[in-house]
Amino acid sequence: MAGFEDALGWVKEQVAARVPKADLDQRDADYIREQLPGLWLLASLYFRADVRGLDRIPSEGPVLMVGNHSGGNVPPDTFVFTLAFCSYFGVERPFYQLAHNLVVSAPPLASLRKFGTVAANPDNARLALESGAALLVYPGGDYEVFRPFWERNKVDFGGRMGYVRLAREAGVPIVPIAAVGGQESVFFLSRGQWLARLLGVDRLFRLKSVPIALAPPWGLVVSDLYGHIPLPSKIVVEAQDPIAADEIEAADDEVVHEKVEGVLQAAVDRLSAERRFPVLG
């Protein structure tokens, strides 16, 4: 047993060593400027991107944007919102997104770091906010992003409230970011949390889910490790009214957390009610 634990510890160290350190300078405004027109055209045609309420986001200074998350390891909501944010506020405004270690360390996804994607951990989040940047986080992580298709319009962070403490310590407002459509771009049948425990990836890679899904081009697939081709689902993202830093400071974590989830759920319910058919929108 001790040998197994030693081997497990060695593998975890090797994985951690391959995760790029948070270097905010890896964000490349010139690169974003060059890529933005073509990528926005793709988002507009393929996902019929509809992004609303950007005027509700403070126009300058650090802000924590907290969203519900969908689409597995190829999340179209993040793709669409990042392009819209950079178009609206300009590529010079520092903007970062937190992502799982496996995303930021995958060689084919290295270009994401040029858009401001950094590994999801508290140190990186604090570093981004202390630099005066806007930061997008998804507290639900792999628990929410792999939820079954029939729960596609359910907001559930799995009880994770660390983002509230982050906002309080940084003294920044929280802007809830609601999105619909992403969980219609791939059909997850199960989170596969039991499978994650069985395979040990919950301890190795901080993966709490090994999902089972129907996803092109693979068909029925176990795990979303190699990604998939997202269906052309219509993606709608809407920023909600900010929760002021003073309000966050004066309230308990659970009170703020319940407000954020409640605001997001109400917005998701309203936006999903506008959709007539899955995928088609």
Structure description:
The chain has helices at 2-17, 29-46, 76-89, 101-105, 111-114, 122-130, 141-145, 162-170, 193-199, 201-204, 245-250, 253-273; strands at residues 50-52, 63-67, 95-99, 117-119, 134-137, 174-180, 187-190, 212-215, 219-222, 236-239. The protein is α/β, with parallel strands linked by helices. It has one domain (2-185, 230-273): 3-Layer(aba) Sandwich (Glycerol-3-phosphate (1)-acyltransferase). The strands form two sheets. The protein has a seven-stranded mixed β-sheet, sandwiched between helices. A three-stranded antiparallel β-sheet has the order 7-8-9, with no helix packed on it. α2 packs across α3. The termini are far apart. This is Glycerol acyltransferase.
Sketch the topology as an H/E string, one letter per element.
HHEEHEHHEHEHHEEHHEEEHH
Protein structure class? alpha/beta
Biggest sheet, open or closed, and with what strands and sense? Answer: 7 strands, mixed
Percent range for helical residues? Answer: 40-55%
CATH architecture designation: 3-Layer(aba) Sandwich
Q: What is the CATH class?
A: Alpha Beta
The 3D shape can be described as globular
CATH topology heading:
Glycerol-3-phosphate (1)-acyltransferase
Rg from Cα: 18 Å
> Mean of the pLDDT scores?
88
- Work out the count of structural domains: 1
**Strand fraction:** 15-25%
Count of distinct strands = 10
Number of helices: 12
Q: What strand line-up does the widest sheet have?
A: 1-10-6-2-5-3-4
Terminal Cα separation, in Å? 52 Å
